[in-house]
Amino acid sequence: MISPGPGVSSIFSAYLEAFVDYEPLQRRVLAVLDALPIEVQRDFLDDPRFRVALEEFVPGQGWTLWMASPGPIGNSSRCVVLRPRLAHCSEAFAFYVIAHEFAHAFLRNGGWGEITDVEEAADALAASWGFRRPAGNSF
To answer: Distance between CA 61 and CA 47 in Å, rounded?
Structure first.
């Protein structure tokens, strides 16, 4: 596991465990978490249903993801699932994808302000955090 830097980094340890075998991705997830506004960090940290997981796809078998079961209305599971290949793509693109997925979690897959399309809302919120989609980058 990476050694958390000073300040808030150590509070994200539980979110980094899934990436222990993917150090570049673990470092990238931590960098994005550290850059998020404190109210977003608190929203994640104060919600026991929020977690971050690694997609573990097995060709021919698919993938399994364990999530908390749904609770009362407004109390659904909040899980960000990231692909291992985010460890190998450009850093700027990885940061964007990670922030975009965290934006979905923060918005609970809803809109943001006047933006009702959930993908556009996640892009706009991630951009407001400083993570814009780099031109010409994809998986």
So the answer is: 32
